[in-house]
Amino acid sequence: MCGIVGYIGKNDTTKILLDGLKELEYRGYDSAGIAVLGDDKIDVFKALGKLHNLEEKVNASSSRDYELGIGHTRWATHGQPTELNAHPHLGEYSYVVHNGIIENYKELKEELINLGHKFVSQTDTEVIVHLFENYNNKLNDTTKAFHNTIDRLEGAFSILLITKADPSKIFFFKHGSPLIVANGKDENEVLFASSDAPLIGLANDVVYLEDGVGGIASAEGIEFFNDNYSWATLPTSKQFAQKDGFRFFMEKEIYEQSDVVSDCMLGRLNDDEILFDEIDKSLIDGINEIKICACGTSYHSGLTASYLFERLSKVKCNVEIASEFRYKDPLLTKDTLFIVISQSGETADTLEALKMAKAAGLKTLVICNVDNSSMTRTADATILTRAGIEKGVASTKAFTTQTVVLWMLALYFGKANNIIEKDKLQKELRALREVPKSLIIDDAMHEKTKRLSKRYLHGHGFFFIGRDVFFPLALEGALKLKEISYLHAEGYPAGEMKHGPIALADPELFTIALMPQNLLYDKIKSNVEELSARDSTICSISPLDFDLSDDFIKINETDHYMLEFFEMLIALQLLSMEISVRLGNDVDMPRNLAKSVTVE
Ligand code: F6R
């Protein structure tokens, strides 16, 4: 996820900006840059890769005194990680850094190109600075030009902008992505950052900007555009700040899911269709079958997608674990679209499966969180999940965004092949829009999982059961518990229990039953009754209370099973985490596991 810093003051501007960016490194990035202004001149430095590359460039230049500057670490979303695509972005005489996604950048870019503006990057961000200059050229008023610019932007945008037309100021605005403004400890000092960590030690009082709040900062002070702001005190611990106040990165990432899913859908969810700029219609022409390959959690999102593809787009879809696929002499036909799913884009088995499919002449697509990874460089097309860096070894937000992308892709296929009816598509799009809301964590649910964890850590084994898409969700719930609690857990299709596993049922065998109201409720209910009759301890996760369950995690009533899916996912992630916490395990770095598995 991208990071922003900004500085106005008498101290060493480049150092403060670079130090600030270092504090944001943990969020992940693939390029970085700063623009610094002094003596009415703006110098800009950009570099690919790690921050020391940028630092070397800055140190190599003959340094001047700079009065202010802005900086950015970029995690590629629109356009490759290249120096041209790195922020700050230049117009003729202004620079901007931006976090978020401008949904209407294509229309704006076209308009500005027609007006004679020259674009050099592939990013959505660049439109901001051209739009600003376009207004300023006409109005000769930087404040009005900034307001007019903001009014034209759609999507998510937290922005810092500097301009030679008004060289003592930083213009700022927050909409969507976080942005903080602070009074520095020294006199006449103003700082900006997209999270607390860069500000600790340099400022005491900060404003965590609300959406729709912006202003203009200079050495004379900060002028806000409206009254919707209040001053707060900064936390003092950097570790705490990096985790945004959460105990673990995993917890932070669970809580982030609502936001990253919004980012993931930005610009892709239209009034009556799904849009993917990154794929060409030719990718799906002539495709009669989809084969998905992945490992671990990514495999579970693939398995979920297989139900969605067949249901919504009537395309045959099968899913394979990449390590199995590789050595089975798979039959591959050219009317198959080969999709790999990977958070890291580096998992050895998945990468190898992708290479095999390419060698066999299949069209290939990767759904990935890391641009410029081995898989995105290999596949014919990439859809980025925009989850931001995932630090917890146990995957959470990567799964959620993968599943949302695949659900959108199933609808894209359904529409492109004229399979899905208009009303049905509308219903699905409505449900997709509700996903961020379904991922907002209710305190009561988190509390409940904390309380349950007290008893559930004593189980000698766990079954997670579900039907349809809730079967892969059960697999994912079991995997989360195994990974961080080290307790034995299995995910099972609920209807299969009576074909063997039910023999294990006893009071210390805990069954986590996923009981959606909107999909096969009666079927799963009878499966759970069978287990209850054999004295298994049952925790049901459902919108509906169920007499026979010992424990109950309530989710909201909705009108779509996928909304139940995502709310249940949150409950499963929190339950595993709370059990792990009680067992005293390392939640973020469980034993024996690595974040990226680059060996077979
Ligand atoms: C589970 C987990 C792993 C990964 C798997 C694939 O929490 O993180 O099971 O999902 O190693 O990794 P990617 O998605 O990077 O290919």
Question: How do the helices and strands line up, and which of them pair or pack?
Answer:
Blueprint (H helix, E strand, L loop, with lengths): L2 E6 L4 H11 L7 E8 L2 E8 L2 H10 L7 E7 L14 E2 L3 E9 L2 H10 L11 H14 L2 H11 L2 E9 L6 E6 L4 E5 L5 E4 L9 E6 L4 E6 L2 E4 L7 E2 L4 H5 L6 H17 L23 E6 L1 H18 L2 E6 H4 L10 E7 L5 H12 L3 E6 L5 H5 L2 E4 L12 H20 L5 H17 L4 H14 L4 E6 L3 H16 L3 E5 L15 E6 L6 H13 L3 E6 L8 E4 L6 H22 L18
Parallel strand pairs: 15-16, 15-17, 17-18, 18-19, 20-21, 20-22, 22-23, 23-24
Antiparallel strand pairs: 1-4, 1-10, 2-3, 2-4, 5-6, 6-7, 7-8, 8-12, 9-10, 9-11, 11-14, 12-13
Q: What can you tell me about this protein's structure?
A:
The radius of gyration is 25 Å and the shape is globular. By secondary structure, it is α/β, with parallel strands linked by helices. Helix 16 links the parallel strand 22 and strand 23. The model has no long low-confidence stretch (mean pLDDT 93). The site of fructose -6-phosphate has 15 residues, from helix 8 and helix 15.
TL;DR of this structure?
With 600 residues, the chain is of the alpha/beta class. Helix content is 36%, strand content 23%.
Which short descriptors sum up this protein?
17 helices, 600 residues, 6-stranded antiparallel β-sheet, binds fructose -6-phosphate, 8-stranded antiparallel β-sheet, alpha/beta
In percent, how helical is the residue content? Answer: 25-40%
Overall radius of gyration: 25 Å
Largest sheet: 8 strands, antiparallel
Total helical elements: 17
Ligands: fructose -6-phosphate
Write down the overall mean pLDDT.
93
Backbone shape: globular
* N-to-C CA distance: 29 Å
Question: Beta fraction of the residues?
Answer: 15-25%
Secondary-structure class: alpha/beta
- Which strand order does the major sheet show? 3-2-4-1-10-9-11-14
What is the count of β-strands?
Answer: 24
The poorly predicted ranges are: none
